[in-house]
Structures are given as C-alpha cells and as structure tokens.
C-alpha cells in the first residue's frame, strides 16, 4: 500500500484480481492529491497488455474535484489507445461529478468492484 502520509489526503493500494489490476483509492482527490492517483493509474495503464483492463476503485473517495476527473481521463485515453479499458467503481460523489460533465457516456462506471470484474465472475 502506498500512503499519502497526510490527514485528509489520499491513500492508494494496487492488487491483481483474476488478471485485472485494481487501484483502490481512499480519501480525497483534489488538486493537492490528484497526482497520487494519476501517477499510478497512468503507470498501470502503460503496463496493461493490449486489451487489458485496469479498475480504478473509487468507492471510498469522499471528495472528488476536477483534478480527479483529469486523472481518470488521462488513464482512460492511454488504455483506449492501447486497446484496453478503464473501469471506474464510483462512490456517489464521484458518479455525480462524472455525470455532471457527461463522462458517464465515455467512461465505464460501476457501482461495485464485483461488477467491474466481469472476467473474475465468469471464471469463478
């Protein structure tokens, strides 16, 4: 687990589930913490095999600013360009922000991690 090391910040943890890489994020994504999410997401997107899926699990995010939206878009574009996909598990505040700017039509949004991992459900 990688920790932001500040109160009110963000913490991230990466794990693999059924061949899908999951970046779990907890805390607040704002201008001060967005790089701590964008960096790992872009890195994971760059390492995902063609057609691979990366899940951004934002179910435990309590604040989500435009800097978070930008972090998701950068990772989404990198994965899309390589034939992969970004699946986003949303907390209500994250979903509201993404819907407000119309990104619910561009990004694959899910209510739970189980829903975002269709391959693991099929094989298990």
From TrEMBL:
A family per Pfam: STAS
Gene Ontology MF term list: anti-sigma factor antagonist activity
Domain STAS: from-to ranges: 10-120
Top-rank lineage group of the source organism: Bacteria
Xref: InterPro entries: Anti-sigma_ant, STAS_dom, STAS_dom_sf
PROSITE patterns, alphabetized: STAS
Family: Belongs to the anti-sigma-factor antagonist family.
Protein name in UniProt: Anti-sigma factor antagonist
């Amino acid at each position: 687990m990688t920790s932001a090391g500040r109160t009110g910040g963000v913490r991230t943890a990466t794990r693999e589930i059924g061949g899908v890489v999951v970046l779990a994020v907890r805390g607040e994504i704002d201008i001060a913490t967005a790089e701590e999410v964008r960096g790992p997401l872009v890195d994971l997107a760059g390492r995902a095999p063609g057609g691979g899926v990366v899940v951004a699990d934002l179910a435990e995010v309590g604040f989500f600013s435009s800097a978070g939206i930008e972090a998701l878009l950068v990772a989404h574009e990198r994965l899309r360009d390589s034939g992969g996909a970004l699946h986003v598990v949303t907390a209500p505040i994250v979903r509201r922000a993404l819907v407000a700017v119309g990104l619910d039509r561009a990004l694959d949004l899910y209510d739970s991690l189980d829903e975002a991992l269709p391959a693991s459900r099929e094989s298990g």
